[in-house]
Amino acid sequence: LRPQDLAGRRIAITAGGTREPLDPVRFLGNRSSGKQGVALAAAARDRGAHVTLIAAHLEVPVPAGVALVEVQTAQELAVAVADAAQVADAVVMAAAVADYRPETVADDKIKKDATGDVLELRLVKNPDILASLTNGTLTPKRLPGQVVIGFAAETETDDAALLAIASAKAVRKGVDFLVVNRVGWTEVFAADDTRVTLLDRAGSIVGDAVGDKMSVAHRILDLLV
Ligand code: C5P
Q: Which intervals of the chain are annotated as region Phosphopantothenate--cysteine ligase (predicted)?
């Protein structure tokens, strides 16, 4: 049995990857499986929290005993986070959110006969949900003592370069903690095991965690507690 150190706490967790539609049948997406966010939701539940899981596309089952809010796009995720954050003691943003979306969504399937050999897409920037949560533009006001944890998935192979980027991101996003992992064609996203570095709000390293995503989830929750 886990310590009930999150008993009665409300935690909103985003998981998975957003999908930005191009037309009724196609989207721009990413390779997030949702495994880490789902593990966090299950771990927080096991420690007594009331969990709201805001799920973009997941490739794993939703754990029992959590409240589920399903979203597709970054804009839908923003609405769900704004809603959940108003009553949350902590918000954990594990979802991989599309930074850009197609400027227009075609009403009908885009036809190759009509578009020719080259199809140009125009993309517009999505809101940075995490940054707008911490700077107070997403919700009327951040709840006193609300802990906000962000994730950073970077592809730099050099440790120092990766940490420099992540450290700046921790400060820029205004998070209490940033969970940093290296991702690539084969690493992390669909994997069962992971390896993360944990940064504080100043961008300084507070620890590392290696192992299956459930044990890493518990390390992240230890920091949250
Ligand atoms: O800037 P970057 O995408 O690396 O930041 C990752 C963190 O920011 C994650 O916690 C992710 O959920 C969040 N994010 C967001 N809104 C975006 C892009 C990322 O909240 N538009």
A: 11-225
